[in-house]
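Box 3.1 A note on notation
Throughout this textbook, protein chains are presented in two layers. The first layer is the amino acid sequence; the second is a token string describing backbone geometry. Keep the layers aligned when reading.
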Amino acid sequence: MTFDSIMNPDSGGIFSSLLHFPRDSLYDLSRAVSKFAGEPTFEDPKLAMHVFVVPGGAPGKGGLSADAAVEESGNQEEPGTIDAKIFLLIFDAHGEAHARSAKGFKWAFEDVPGASEESPSKGTALDDTPKEMTLASVHELQRGGQSSHGTSYSWLSAALVDGENGAIDDEFLVRMWSWYRSLTQSNNSRPDNSNLSRGAFVLLEIMQKTSSTSSATPNSTAWPHGAKGRQHVLQLSVGTPKEPRSDAEFQSLRSQAFQILHRAPAEMTDKDEHPPEDYLPNFLVPGLHEIPAVFGAKNDHDSNNDWHSLQRIKAKYDTKGRFGRNLGSFFVDPSFSR
């Protein structure tokens, strides 16, 4: 098996920043993000943006530590409710000047009220001069979140969501916020060992059309096989602290988590249900996702699809199940010869 790979040098000079917005700016931010996602400017492959609804501090800076968020929230009306925060992560490989211009993210810095910049491209508190970044240093920004690794059981899902001409609808972020707050409020009276909002977050990865529609035919790529235009990724997490519990208790929590994640994409897209084929292959879980549909199978008798091909390749080259280990034997039809 051979393949060609083209790599371009990382020239540095990247600008990346986290912008925090107050709750009062949620509607303005939702409309602004929707508008920018549908503009031709955003088709520039050197631009990217993600929206987070997370507990407590910024993503990568303790923002996924829900326990700390509860302690710091000071929420007297809803004791124990996690204090959610809204962040916009921007990335501009053209550099800081471009990012702050009308060709970049000027609208986020200046037009949405209350933007507070937590720029990881800045130096320390004693050195506030702009710093050029490389791709490696952008990745290092998430190191701060490692303190929460291994502290909870988490279940995740990554639904593909659509938009007309790339734009998401202008109240999408509002529904993201509402879903998160509803999850924390419905769990705030539950003890830690049955609370599914610990470690929960919502992440909307706003992607460009070419990220998922550049292939000539559906069978020329492994995924996606859903409706054209569903190019944005809605990544969701629910979790519970790693505490001693019986197997029956754990399975009950797992089932509840699956129900929450199953309903969530439709709630945030304001649809009756979310198409089973419109998921990113990340975090696929038997029992929660219809995995054959994600890879193009229309029904059990449809053999002309990538799911059928994937099963054959898996059976031939990955007999020990090293790849997609969380899916186990689900990938492999034992009737296929090795």
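Residues 62-81, 121-129, 333-338 have pLDDT under 50 and may be disordered. The two ends are 16 Å apart (CA to CA).
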